[in-house]
Design a protein that fits this description.
659 residues; alpha/beta; seven-stranded mixed β-sheet; three-stranded mixed β-sheet; 10 strands; disordered C terminus
């Protein structure tokens, strides 16, 4: 019945939403104020697409029951990733992981290479892995993804349970999840991330009950539930296949770029080298022919190693021919110089080189340098060793600071399946101050936009239509910062200047707008089955500067190569008093909203404003200020203070589906 009512409300939402937006575009735009009317209707269209994507997500809501019994012989490595977290925290998680009942090996993946942590691991019989000395400073480390990729090459378990340093697992976490892997196509089982240091009112919006609930359950129905970085079990076979396929694809791209670049270099070399010399022309012809043949072999799907071996052999032979010719010419000139020295002896008896010999030597093209450098560039570029990376095969994606989503999307594109198990089986620590929360949200948004720009799911081969849209839906939400700016600006402009972005606030407007808004909110209520969603709605609007910054910085990183730092989320409250400077843009917007409301009321009282328009926009301002008010609580939040008896969720509370 839950699915029936959810689908019914989805249909009503789409009908009322399309009816409203179609009318807005066709009949309501105030073209005299197009500079605000057009952005507003575009923002509303964005929001309609957003809610339609949400409706599609929950359309196939999958409520799983208990997993099948786990395979008794399954080997598991438990990975605890850490960089600079407190040692006590890491050891608490590691010792809890050691007590997991299903047979396994527990590994601490210490990217901070701390001797004291290594000693603690050895003392308690835990595995310890860090980067090798081969990781030089000039090679990319790829943060958490690189840490996990390094550990994958040093362990052997058939399955991997990945935990952040603060995520303390339950002893039965593997018993309740491994059974899904009886299906040989399942590569990932994701469980919720639940935070034990979050008060009931959740002022920083950490719990995300909507995402770790209807959204992931809906994506699960489309076989698109994705990896969230922790509290997940992955199949090693799928990851290694992903790494090998990725290695081949990246190597092939590198070879294609090298071959194209070599032909361009040869073309330039023909212009700069002395083409009257037959040998130079012959060498360049030989190298160009070798690259063209290599391109044909590449298109035919021949082994990359054999292609690069053959082309390098031919290029080596051409270069050697050119070098030997230069050596022979050099030897002849040296012999000529020696003869000249013997023929010309000065008054002091010291040999003198004739002026004509000096001129000939300085004017001579000792070697076709441009051609030689072009050939050498081909030799350097045509390599399958990936010397620009610390390890050639990288199973977890490294294209983004959020390696989890990109990795899951690639696995789905290869035909693997995923599972979302809706039961809290590990307890972590959420940010306890606004600065840390903003850093965390910025990294999530940046990474998601990086994936969108580098591997847009809408055009990825191997993904089914539903999977494409499920990944795109998550990426689409992070564009909301731009829409929020318009939603804040529209009432301010009307109340201060009297400029309405619609032709009029008539009955036609309200009969379309109000039903859409009502069923929109009803959709969240029905899909969420009673879970609180208001905090999430507040932060989706209130953090508009963070979302805009994420989009702009991720775009600069992808298009111009500007690096994005990977900031480990601190697990303890950062020192210092309230940081009002962190929300300066929101404060400015709130002040403008409040001033606009006062001015609008004054204009109404003096007969300078239309009553209905003023009341609607004042109500809009009040809503926006209520949304923004959460930031005041966030700035003043002093961290979690547990009650006398910490309230952990019961089994029923952990999983509303009865798992």
């Amino acid at each position: 019945m839950t699915r029936f009512w959810t689908r019914l409300v989805v249909v009503l939402t789409v009908i009322t939403g399309v009816n409203y937006i179609a009318w807005r575009w066709a009949a309501s735009l105030n073209w005299d104020a197009w500079w605000i009317a057009l952005p507003l209707v575009i923002a509303e269209t964005y929001s309609l697409i957003d809610v339609m994507l949400f409706g599609m997500t929950v359309w196939k809501l999958k409520i799983r029951k208990a997993a099948p019994p786990p395979p008794p012989d399954a080997t598991v490595d438990v990975f605890i990733t850490t960089y600079n977290e407190d040692l006590d925290m890491v050891m608490t998680t590691a010792l809890a992981a050691q007590k997991i009942r299903h047979p396994h090996s527990t590994w601490i993946l210490d990217d901070g290479a701390r001797p004291e942590l290594k000693a603690l691991a050895e003392q308690h019989g835990l595995g310890y892995v860090t980067r090798s000395e081969d990781w030089t400073s000039n090679l990319p480390r790829h943060a958490k993804a690189g840490n996990l990729n390094n550990a994958l090459m040093q362990t052997h378990g058939e399955f991997l349970l990945i935990l952040d340093a603060d995520q303390i697992p339950e002893p039965d976490i593997l018993e309740k999840t491994l059974g899904y892997f009886n299906n040989r196509r399942v590569a990932l089982v994701q469980t919720p991330q639940y935070f034990s240091n979050v008060p009931a009112d959740d002022p920083l919006g950490s719990q995300a009950p909507l995402f770790y609930g209807p959204i992931q359950q809906g994506k699960d129905g489309w076989n698109a539930a994705f990896f969230c970085g922790s509290n997940a079990i992955l199949r090693r076979e799928a990851l290694m296949q992903l790494g090998l396929v990725g290695y081949v694809k990246e190597t092939e791209k590198s070879i294609r770029r090298a071959l194209a670049a070599s032909r361009s270099a040869i073309k330039q070399a023909r212009k700069s080298a002395d083409m009257e010399t037959p040998l130079v022309a012959q060498v360049l012809d030989e190298v160009e022919a070798a690259t063209r043949e290599a391109q044909k072999e590449l298109d035919a799907g021949q082994p990359l190693g054999e292609i690069t071996y053959r082309v390098r052999r031919r290029v080596d032979a051409a270069v050697q021919t050119l070098v030997m010719a230069d050596v022979e010419a050099l030897q002849a000139d040296l012999e000529e110089i020696a003869a000249m020295e013997l023929a010309h002896v000065g008054e002091s008896g010291v040999p003198v080189v004739a002026d004509d010999a000096v001129q000939r030597m300085s004017a001579r093209d000792w070697s076709p340098l441009g051609a030689l450098e072009s050939v050498q560039a081909v030799l350097d570029a045509l390599s399958v060793e990936r010397n620009d990376e610390a390890q050639p095969v990288m199973p977890l994606a490294t294209i983004s600071v959020t390696e989890d989503m990109a990795t899951a999307m690639r696995m789905h594109a290869m035909g693997w399946e995923s599972v979302y198990h809706h039961e809290v089986l590990a307890y972590g620590l959420a940010p306890e101050d606004l600065k840390t929360m903003l850093t965390q949200r910025l990294r999530w948004a940046q990474g998601t936009i990086q994936v969108l720009l580098r591997e847009n799911p809408l055009v990825q081969k191997g993904l089914k239509l539903g999977q494409r849209l499920m990944y795109f839906a998550t990426m689409w939400t992070y564009l909301s910062g731009y829409a929020a700016v318009i939603y804040f600006a529209a009432p301010i402009i009307y109340l201060l200047l009297g400029i309405l972005p619609v032709t009029s606030l008539s009955w036609d407007f309200f009969i379309r707008f109000i039903p859409f808004m009502v069923v929109n909110q009803l959709l969240f209520a029905v899909a969420g089955r009673g879970i609180p969603t208001w905090r999430g709605q507040q932060y989706s609007l209130a953090l508009f500067p963070t979302w805009i910054k994420a989009c702009s910085t991720a775009a600069r990183n992808v298009w111009f190569g500007r690096p994005l730092g990977f900031a480990v989320t601190p697990k303890a409250r950062q020192s210092g008093g309230p940081s009002w400077s962190l929300i300066q843009p929101q404060i400015v917007v709130s002040v403008l909203l409040a001033v606009a409301a006062v001015v609008g009321i004054i204009r109404l009282a003096t007969g300078l404003a239309e009553p209905l328009g003023t009341l609607v926009n004042v109500a809009w301002v009040i809503f926006d200020l209520v949304v923004m008010s959460i930031l005041v609580r966030a700035v003043l939040y002093k961290g979690y203070e547990p009650a006398a008896e910490p309230a952990e969720p019961t089994n029923t509370e952990r999983n509303s589906d009865g798992v």
